[in-house]
Design a protein that fits this description.
The complex is a heterodimer of chains A (238) and B (148). Chain A is mainly α. Helices cover 45% and strands 2% of the residues of chain A. Chain A starts with a helix and ends in a 6-residue tail after the last helix.
Protein backbone atom coordinates (compact mmCIF):
# COMPACT_ATOMS: atom_id res chain seq x y z
CA UNK A 1 0.00 0.00 0.00
CA UNK A 2 2.73 2.47 1.09
CA UNK A 3 4.80 1.49 -1.90
CA UNK A 4 1.95 2.34 -4.27
CA UNK A 5 1.41 5.73 -2.57
CA UNK A 6 5.15 6.39 -2.67
CA UNK A 7 5.35 5.56 -6.41
CA UNK A 8 2.36 7.78 -7.16
CA UNK A 9 3.89 10.61 -5.14
CA UNK A 10 7.13 10.38 -7.09
CA UNK A 11 5.24 10.37 -10.39
CA UNK A 12 3.24 13.39 -9.27
CA UNK A 13 6.35 15.27 -8.21
CA UNK A 14 8.10 14.49 -11.49
CA UNK A 15 5.06 15.64 -13.47
CA UNK A 16 4.91 18.84 -11.43
CA UNK A 17 8.64 19.52 -11.94
CA UNK A 18 8.39 19.06 -15.71
CA UNK A 19 5.32 21.28 -15.87
CA UNK A 20 7.08 23.98 -13.86
CA UNK A 21 10.19 23.75 -16.04
CA UNK A 22 7.99 24.16 -19.10
CA UNK A 23 6.24 27.25 -17.77
CA UNK A 24 9.14 28.90 -15.92
CA UNK A 25 11.72 28.61 -18.69
CA UNK A 26 13.18 32.05 -19.49
CA UNK A 27 11.44 34.07 -22.14
CA UNK A 28 13.59 33.96 -25.25
CA UNK A 29 13.98 37.39 -26.74
CA UNK A 30 13.20 37.59 -30.41
CA UNK A 31 15.72 39.77 -32.25
CA UNK A 32 13.56 39.91 -35.38
CA UNK A 33 10.60 41.20 -33.37
CA UNK A 34 12.91 43.72 -31.70
CA UNK A 35 14.13 44.91 -35.09
CA UNK A 36 10.57 45.32 -36.34
CA UNK A 37 9.67 47.29 -33.20
CA UNK A 38 12.75 49.50 -33.65
CA UNK A 39 11.96 50.24 -37.28
CA UNK A 40 8.38 51.11 -36.42
CA UNK A 41 8.98 53.16 -33.28
CA UNK A 42 12.59 54.32 -32.97
CA UNK A 43 14.10 54.70 -36.44
CA UNK A 44 12.45 58.03 -37.22
CA UNK A 45 14.63 59.67 -34.53
CA UNK A 46 17.57 57.28 -34.09
CA UNK A 47 19.32 56.61 -37.38
CA UNK A 48 21.06 53.31 -38.01
CA UNK A 49 23.33 54.69 -40.70
CA UNK A 50 26.89 55.75 -40.20
CA UNK A 51 26.69 59.39 -41.19
CA UNK A 52 29.35 61.75 -42.40
CA UNK A 53 29.81 65.38 -41.50
CA UNK A 54 26.80 67.41 -42.60
CA UNK A 55 25.93 71.10 -42.54
CA UNK A 56 25.09 72.44 -39.10
CA UNK A 57 21.54 73.08 -40.27
CA UNK A 58 21.18 69.38 -41.06
CA UNK A 59 22.94 68.39 -37.83
CA UNK A 60 20.52 70.50 -35.80
CA UNK A 61 17.57 68.93 -37.62
CA UNK A 62 18.47 65.46 -36.25
CA UNK A 63 15.88 64.32 -33.72
CA UNK A 64 18.05 61.90 -31.75
CA UNK A 65 21.45 60.27 -31.46
CA UNK A 66 22.42 57.67 -34.06
CA UNK A 67 22.28 54.16 -32.63
CA UNK A 68 24.18 52.06 -35.19
CA UNK A 69 26.68 51.27 -32.41
CA UNK A 70 24.17 50.96 -29.50
CA UNK A 71 25.28 47.44 -28.58
CA UNK A 72 28.88 48.57 -28.25
CA UNK A 73 28.07 51.74 -26.34
CA UNK A 74 25.45 50.72 -23.80
CA UNK A 75 25.31 48.08 -21.10
CA UNK A 76 22.42 45.67 -21.55
CA UNK A 77 21.10 45.94 -17.99
CA UNK A 78 21.06 49.71 -18.16
CA UNK A 79 19.20 49.70 -21.46
CA UNK A 80 16.53 47.38 -20.04
CA UNK A 81 15.91 49.65 -17.06
CA UNK A 82 16.18 52.93 -18.95
CA UNK A 83 13.75 51.95 -21.70
CA UNK A 84 11.15 51.03 -19.06
CA UNK A 85 11.50 54.39 -17.30
CA UNK A 86 13.62 56.86 -19.32
CA UNK A 87 15.39 59.55 -17.34
CA UNK A 88 17.09 62.55 -18.94
CA UNK A 89 20.76 62.13 -19.84
CA UNK A 90 21.28 65.48 -21.50
CA UNK A 91 21.00 68.62 -19.40
CA UNK A 92 19.49 70.58 -22.28
CA UNK A 93 16.47 70.22 -24.48
CA UNK A 94 17.50 68.38 -27.65
CA UNK A 95 18.99 70.64 -30.30
CA UNK A 96 18.90 73.72 -28.05
CA UNK A 97 20.94 75.41 -25.37
CA UNK A 98 17.95 75.62 -23.06
CA UNK A 99 18.22 73.74 -19.79
CA UNK A 100 15.57 71.08 -19.41
CA UNK A 101 14.62 67.45 -19.90
CA UNK A 102 13.70 65.64 -23.09
CA UNK A 103 10.60 63.49 -23.11
CA UNK A 104 11.57 60.05 -24.34
CA UNK A 105 8.65 57.61 -24.47
CA UNK A 106 8.85 54.57 -22.20
CA UNK A 107 8.74 51.18 -23.91
CA UNK A 108 6.12 48.65 -22.88
CA UNK A 109 7.73 46.07 -20.57
CA UNK A 110 6.66 43.18 -22.81
CA UNK A 111 8.59 44.66 -25.77
CA UNK A 112 11.82 45.46 -23.94
CA UNK A 113 13.55 42.03 -24.11
CA UNK A 114 13.09 41.84 -27.90
CA UNK A 115 14.13 45.46 -28.42
CA UNK A 116 17.20 45.23 -26.20
CA UNK A 117 18.27 41.97 -27.83
CA UNK A 118 18.12 43.71 -31.18
CA UNK A 119 19.98 46.79 -29.90
CA UNK A 120 22.75 44.56 -28.57
CA UNK A 121 23.32 43.27 -32.12
CA UNK A 122 24.13 46.83 -33.29
CA UNK A 123 27.85 46.74 -32.68
CA UNK A 124 30.84 48.46 -34.17
CA UNK A 125 33.00 45.53 -35.25
CA UNK A 126 36.12 47.68 -35.31
CA UNK A 127 36.11 48.38 -31.57
CA UNK A 128 39.17 46.98 -29.87
CA UNK A 129 38.26 44.82 -26.89
CA UNK A 130 40.10 45.10 -23.60
CA UNK A 131 41.62 48.50 -24.34
CA UNK A 132 41.12 49.66 -20.77
CA UNK A 133 42.43 48.27 -17.54
CA UNK A 134 39.95 46.94 -14.98
CA UNK A 135 40.01 48.57 -11.56
CA UNK A 136 42.34 46.86 -9.08
CA UNK A 137 40.72 44.73 -6.37
CA UNK A 138 42.62 46.39 -3.55
CA UNK A 139 40.92 49.53 -2.25
CA UNK A 140 44.22 51.38 -1.88
CA UNK A 141 45.37 50.67 -5.44
CA UNK A 142 41.89 51.42 -6.76
CA UNK A 143 41.82 54.80 -5.01
CA UNK A 144 45.26 55.66 -6.35
CA UNK A 145 44.29 54.71 -9.93
CA UNK A 146 41.02 56.67 -9.78
CA UNK A 147 42.84 59.66 -8.29
CA UNK A 148 45.26 59.77 -11.23
CA UNK A 149 42.54 59.33 -13.82
CA UNK A 150 40.44 62.02 -12.12
CA UNK A 151 43.30 64.44 -12.70
CA UNK A 152 42.98 63.77 -16.42
CA UNK A 153 39.23 64.34 -16.32
CA UNK A 154 39.37 67.50 -14.24
CA UNK A 155 42.68 69.21 -14.92
CA UNK A 156 44.01 67.94 -18.24
CA UNK A 157 40.84 67.74 -20.29
CA UNK A 158 38.36 69.78 -18.30
CA UNK A 159 35.56 67.38 -19.30
CA UNK A 160 33.32 68.74 -16.56
CA UNK A 161 32.99 72.04 -18.41
CA UNK A 162 30.27 70.29 -20.44
CA UNK A 163 29.47 67.09 -18.49
CA UNK A 164 27.93 66.65 -15.05
CA UNK A 165 29.96 64.32 -12.84
CA UNK A 166 30.54 63.43 -9.18
CA UNK A 167 33.59 65.17 -7.75
CA UNK A 168 35.80 63.92 -4.91
CA UNK A 169 33.47 65.54 -2.37
CA UNK A 170 30.57 63.50 -3.74
CA UNK A 171 29.02 66.66 -5.16
CA UNK A 172 27.46 66.62 -8.64
CA UNK A 173 28.90 69.49 -10.61
CA UNK A 174 29.64 70.42 -14.21
CA UNK A 175 28.14 71.81 -17.38
CA UNK A 176 24.94 70.87 -19.12
CA UNK A 177 25.53 70.74 -22.86
CA UNK A 178 27.01 67.24 -22.89
CA UNK A 179 25.45 64.00 -21.61
CA UNK A 180 25.65 63.65 -17.84
CA UNK A 181 28.35 61.24 -16.72
CA UNK A 182 26.66 60.57 -13.40
CA UNK A 183 25.76 56.90 -13.65
CA UNK A 184 28.08 56.36 -16.63
CA UNK A 185 29.47 53.34 -14.78
CA UNK A 186 26.15 51.61 -15.25
CA UNK A 187 25.48 52.99 -18.73
CA UNK A 188 28.64 52.88 -20.83
CA UNK A 189 31.01 50.14 -21.92
CA UNK A 190 34.68 51.04 -21.32
CA UNK A 191 35.79 49.73 -24.74
CA UNK A 192 33.31 52.01 -26.49
CA UNK A 193 34.37 55.04 -24.41
CA UNK A 194 37.99 54.35 -25.38
CA UNK A 195 36.99 54.01 -29.05
CA UNK A 196 35.03 57.27 -28.83
CA UNK A 197 37.97 59.10 -27.26
CA UNK A 198 40.21 57.70 -30.00
CA UNK A 199 37.92 58.51 -32.96
CA UNK A 200 35.10 60.79 -31.79
CA UNK A 201 34.04 61.76 -35.31
CA UNK A 202 33.40 58.13 -36.18
CA UNK A 203 30.38 58.22 -33.89
CA UNK A 204 29.36 61.89 -33.96
CA UNK A 205 30.75 63.36 -37.21
CA UNK A 206 29.79 66.97 -36.51
CA UNK A 207 31.16 66.65 -33.03
CA UNK A 208 30.33 68.82 -30.09
CA UNK A 209 32.95 67.11 -27.96
CA UNK A 210 36.34 68.70 -28.57
CA UNK A 211 38.72 65.87 -27.80
CA UNK A 212 42.35 66.86 -28.29
CA UNK A 213 43.90 65.38 -31.37
CA UNK A 214 46.86 66.21 -33.57
CA UNK A 215 46.13 69.93 -33.65
CA UNK A 216 45.91 70.32 -29.88
CA UNK A 217 48.55 72.06 -27.81
CA UNK A 218 48.37 69.37 -25.12
CA UNK A 219 48.56 66.00 -26.85
CA UNK A 220 46.38 63.12 -25.70
CA UNK A 221 47.99 59.68 -25.68
CA UNK A 222 46.37 56.24 -25.96
CA UNK A 223 47.36 55.69 -22.34
CA UNK A 224 45.46 58.88 -21.41
CA UNK A 225 42.43 57.67 -23.35
CA UNK A 226 42.42 54.29 -21.64
CA UNK A 227 42.78 55.93 -18.21
CA UNK A 228 39.98 58.41 -18.93
CA UNK A 229 37.69 55.62 -20.18
CA UNK A 230 38.38 53.73 -16.95
CA UNK A 231 37.54 56.81 -14.87
CA UNK A 232 34.33 57.61 -16.75
CA UNK A 233 33.05 54.05 -16.60
CA UNK A 234 33.76 53.83 -12.89
CA UNK A 235 32.16 57.15 -12.03
CA UNK A 236 31.22 57.25 -8.35
CA UNK A 237 33.07 54.00 -7.54
CA UNK A 238 35.06 54.24 -4.31
CA UNK B 1 35.18 57.96 -87.12
CA UNK B 2 33.10 60.64 -85.46
CA UNK B 3 36.08 62.83 -84.51
CA UNK B 4 36.98 63.18 -88.19
CA UNK B 5 33.72 65.08 -88.74
CA UNK B 6 34.36 67.52 -85.87
CA UNK B 7 36.30 70.67 -86.57
CA UNK B 8 38.75 71.73 -83.85
CA UNK B 9 36.60 74.69 -82.76
CA UNK B 10 33.49 72.50 -82.51
CA UNK B 11 35.48 69.94 -80.53
CA UNK B 12 36.60 72.63 -78.06
CA UNK B 13 33.02 73.92 -77.79
CA UNK B 14 31.77 70.42 -77.08
CA UNK B 15 34.43 69.95 -74.42
CA UNK B 16 33.46 73.27 -72.84
CA UNK B 17 29.74 72.42 -72.82
CA UNK B 18 30.45 69.01 -71.28
CA UNK B 19 32.72 70.53 -68.62
CA UNK B 20 30.13 73.14 -67.66
CA UNK B 21 27.42 70.46 -67.55
CA UNK B 22 29.57 68.26 -65.30
CA UNK B 23 30.37 71.20 -63.02
CA UNK B 24 26.66 72.07 -62.71
CA UNK B 25 25.82 68.45 -61.90
CA UNK B 26 28.50 68.28 -59.22
CA UNK B 27 27.34 71.57 -57.67
CA UNK B 28 23.71 70.46 -57.73
CA UNK B 29 24.28 67.13 -56.03
CA UNK B 30 27.16 68.09 -53.75
CA UNK B 31 26.10 67.51 -50.12
CA UNK B 32 25.90 70.63 -47.99
CA UNK B 33 29.33 70.83 -46.42
CA UNK B 34 30.36 72.25 -43.10
CA UNK B 35 32.40 74.85 -44.97
CA UNK B 36 29.14 76.45 -46.04
CA UNK B 37 28.11 77.12 -42.46
CA UNK B 38 28.29 80.79 -41.69
CA UNK B 39 30.05 82.25 -38.69
CA UNK B 40 26.92 82.69 -36.61
CA UNK B 41 25.85 79.06 -37.13
CA UNK B 42 29.34 77.86 -36.20
CA UNK B 43 29.40 80.06 -33.12
CA UNK B 44 25.97 78.90 -31.92
CA UNK B 45 26.87 75.23 -32.45
CA UNK B 46 30.39 75.14 -31.02
CA UNK B 47 30.91 78.18 -28.78
CA UNK B 48 27.61 79.44 -27.36
CA UNK B 49 27.27 76.67 -24.75
CA UNK B 50 30.09 78.32 -22.79
CA UNK B 51 30.43 81.85 -24.17
CA UNK B 52 26.68 82.50 -24.39
CA UNK B 53 24.39 82.91 -27.37
CA UNK B 54 25.14 86.65 -27.40
CA UNK B 55 28.84 86.23 -26.65
CA UNK B 56 28.49 87.65 -23.15
CA UNK B 57 30.17 84.66 -21.45
CA UNK B 58 26.91 83.48 -19.92
CA UNK B 59 26.45 80.11 -21.62
CA UNK B 60 24.70 77.20 -19.90
CA UNK B 61 28.07 75.65 -19.08
CA UNK B 62 29.34 78.79 -17.36
CA UNK B 63 28.73 77.37 -13.89
CA UNK B 64 30.34 78.60 -10.70
CA UNK B 65 32.35 75.37 -10.54
CA UNK B 66 34.59 76.35 -13.44
CA UNK B 67 38.06 77.51 -12.45
CA UNK B 68 37.82 80.31 -15.02
CA UNK B 69 34.69 81.89 -16.40
CA UNK B 70 34.30 81.91 -20.21
CA UNK B 71 35.41 85.16 -21.85
CA UNK B 72 32.78 87.83 -22.36
CA UNK B 73 33.34 88.84 -25.98
CA UNK B 74 31.02 91.83 -25.69
CA UNK B 75 33.31 93.49 -23.15
CA UNK B 76 35.60 96.14 -24.69
CA UNK B 77 38.39 94.94 -22.38
CA UNK B 78 38.75 91.26 -23.25
CA UNK B 79 39.56 90.81 -26.92
CA UNK B 80 41.67 93.90 -27.79
CA UNK B 81 44.56 92.33 -25.84
CA UNK B 82 44.77 89.41 -28.26
CA UNK B 83 46.22 89.44 -31.76
CA UNK B 84 44.29 87.70 -34.51
CA UNK B 85 46.92 84.97 -34.45
CA UNK B 86 46.42 84.41 -30.72
CA UNK B 87 42.65 84.11 -31.21
CA UNK B 88 43.14 81.60 -34.01
CA UNK B 89 45.68 79.61 -31.96
CA UNK B 90 43.35 79.51 -28.96
CA UNK B 91 40.41 78.22 -30.99
CA UNK B 92 42.54 75.73 -32.88
CA UNK B 93 44.86 74.42 -30.18
CA UNK B 94 43.07 75.30 -26.95
CA UNK B 95 43.58 77.82 -24.15
CA UNK B 96 46.96 76.50 -22.92
CA UNK B 97 48.54 77.40 -26.28
CA UNK B 98 48.22 81.09 -25.31
CA UNK B 99 48.64 80.66 -21.54
CA UNK B 100 44.86 80.70 -21.09
CA UNK B 101 42.64 78.22 -19.23
CA UNK B 102 42.70 74.49 -20.02
CA UNK B 103 38.91 74.71 -19.88
CA UNK B 104 39.04 76.32 -23.34
CA UNK B 105 39.35 73.18 -25.50
CA UNK B 106 41.06 72.76 -28.89
CA UNK B 107 38.70 72.73 -31.87
CA UNK B 108 41.30 72.15 -34.57
CA UNK B 109 40.24 68.56 -35.17
CA UNK B 110 36.63 69.59 -35.78
CA UNK B 111 36.85 72.99 -37.45
CA UNK B 112 38.82 73.77 -40.60
CA UNK B 113 41.29 76.67 -40.74
CA UNK B 114 38.76 78.48 -42.90
CA UNK B 115 36.00 78.02 -40.32
CA UNK B 116 38.30 79.16 -37.50
CA UNK B 117 39.10 82.30 -39.50
CA UNK B 118 35.36 82.92 -39.94
CA UNK B 119 34.89 82.58 -36.17
CA UNK B 120 37.79 84.94 -35.45
CA UNK B 121 36.16 87.56 -37.69
CA UNK B 122 32.84 87.06 -35.90
CA UNK B 123 34.49 87.58 -32.51
CA UNK B 124 36.01 90.84 -33.75
CA UNK B 125 32.52 91.82 -34.88
CA UNK B 126 30.97 90.95 -31.50
CA UNK B 127 33.57 92.92 -29.53
CA UNK B 128 33.65 95.72 -32.13
CA UNK B 129 37.38 95.78 -31.62
CA UNK B 130 40.76 95.06 -33.17
CA UNK B 131 44.07 94.21 -31.55
CA UNK B 132 45.28 97.12 -29.43
CA UNK B 133 49.01 96.83 -28.56
CA UNK B 134 48.69 99.44 -25.79
CA UNK B 135 45.84 97.49 -24.15
CA UNK B 136 47.85 94.27 -24.50
CA UNK B 137 50.91 95.88 -22.86
CA UNK B 138 48.76 97.23 -20.02
CA UNK B 139 47.16 93.81 -19.49
CA UNK B 140 50.58 92.11 -19.47
CA UNK B 141 51.87 94.64 -16.92
CA UNK B 142 48.81 94.08 -14.73
CA UNK B 143 49.26 90.29 -14.92
CA UNK B 144 52.95 90.63 -13.97
CA UNK B 145 52.01 92.87 -11.05
CA UNK B 146 49.51 90.32 -9.77
CA UNK B 147 52.10 87.55 -9.95
CA UNK B 148 54.49 89.48 -7.69
Amino acid sequence: MWLIIHKNLISLLLALTFSLLFFIQPVRADIKKGEAFYKQNCLSCHSLSRTTKVSLEEAKALKGMPLWFAGSKFKKGWLEKWLAAPKPILGVKWGTLTKGANDHPAVDASKIPDLVSYLMTLVDAEIKKGATEPLPESRGKRKSMLGKTRQLFEKHQGCYACHQYINRLDKTIGGFSGPSLVGADKRLNPDWVYAFLKSPRRYYPNGGCPIPGESAFNKFTDENRAALATYITNMGVK
Amino acid sequence: MMTKHLTLSNYIKLQLILSVACFCLVITFLPASAAQDNGDALYQYYCAQCHGEKGDGKGINATEDLPTQPKDFTSPKNLPVFTDEQIVNTIKQGGPKEQLSFIMPPWGDILSDEQIDVLKKLLRKICKCQYDPAAAAAAAAEAAKQKQ
